[in-house]
Amino acid sequence: MADAGPLGADEAAFIAAARSDDTAPFALVAERHRRELQVHCYRMLANYEDARDLTQETFLRAWHKRASFKGNAALRTWLYRIATNACLDFLDKRNDRTPVPSEPADLDSELLYLQPYPDRMLPEDPQESAVARETIELAFIVAVQHLPPRQRAVFILRDVLGWPAATAADALELTVASVTSALQRARVTMRERLPDRRLDWRRPATHELSNDERTVVASYIGAHERNDLDGLVSLLRDDLRFVMLPEAGTSVATAKEAVEGWLTGGLFGPGYDDWRCITTTVNRMPAAALYLRAADGPEYRLFTLAVLRIVDGKIAELTGFDARDKPWLDLPPTL
């Protein structure tokens, strides 16, 4: 993300397209950065649909500001700057992007606007685009949302993308001292929110699922398809963290509470006892797409996406998402 030295091919092509006032070659050059910019907007907003909209807004702003790009910095840096400020403008206008306090008060807060990120839309080259698995997982995305917007931007630019302090300060129209102070405060919050995670987010990290993860998600699917409550319970850590989005008030912090809630809701009872599931991944995490068939129904319909965080062969976190009518998840609507 450092500023460019000699004018690169990307920058030269972008300047030529801007000078010609021809949107087609301009869009072609900018499009190469869509996926990584969309991930950046997702980290800022925790919502896939908003990230997609703000990436498009970034390209519109870039077109209108095309004359200001002189090639003194890398094109990628310039586009990230526009995307970051577009997200900040969005957050300034929205009062529904603050985590909702859970009950009881000592539980983490819920992000009712949180959406999963389809792996197929991640950049194809994670090293080039700095999409290490741990910086796209749900726990990281949720933790980042507890930072004030500008502090969030500083943290992502500095500690995730690895920008120098001066470059981040210039992008956000802040002083270097302000950026340094904001980063220090952000790191404290991130340590509190992710106490068991590494803190060097710029270090390369694997994005492949482990054998444990593959085995557990297969067992989770098998338990659902057999209506096997004991089998399901055996997969859960006692301190399971469960939330079902976008429903408010579903967050629980023990396996016992989660299972009691599932049974009260009718899991494995009439109308919720004919499941088919498929394995998938979102946010570089193992997930199960759950399909439910109504009594005498002709087909299984996509119902819920269960995203799992697996620790030592057990499910430590289970985040459920309403998956109905979500074509962007790229899952078949029926089985």
UniProtKB/TrEMBL annotation:
Residues 140-189 form the RNA polymerase sigma factor 70 region 4 type domain. The keyword Transcription applies. It comes from the Bacteria. Keywords: Sigma factor, Transcription, Transcription regulation. Residues 31-95 form the RNA polymerase sigma-70 region domain. Pfam families: Sigma70_r2 (PF04542), Sigma70_r4_2 (PF08281). One of its GO terms (biological process) is DNA-templated transcription initiation. The keyword rRNA processing does not apply. InterPro entries: NTF2-like_dom_sf, RNA_pol_sigma-70-like, RNA_pol_sigma-70_dom, RNA_pol_sigma-G_actinobac, RNA_pol_sigma70_r2, RNA_pol_sigma70_r4_t2, RNA_pol_sigma_r2, RNA_pol_sigma_r3/r4-like. GO terms for molecular function: DNA binding; sigma factor activity. Interacts transiently with the RNA polymerase catalytic core formed by RpoA, RpoB, RpoC and RpoZ (2 alpha, 1 beta, 1 beta' and 1 omega subunit) to form the RNA polymerase holoenzyme that can initiate transcription. PANTHER family: ECF RNA POLYMERASE SIGMA FACTOR SIGG, RNA POLYMERASE ECF-TYPE SIGMA FACTO. Belongs to the sigma-70 factor family. ECF subfamily. This is RNA polymerase sigma factor. It comes from Virgisporangium aliadipatigenens. The lineage of its organism: Bacteria, Bacillati, Actinomycetota, Actinomycetes, Micromonosporales. The gene is rpoE_6.
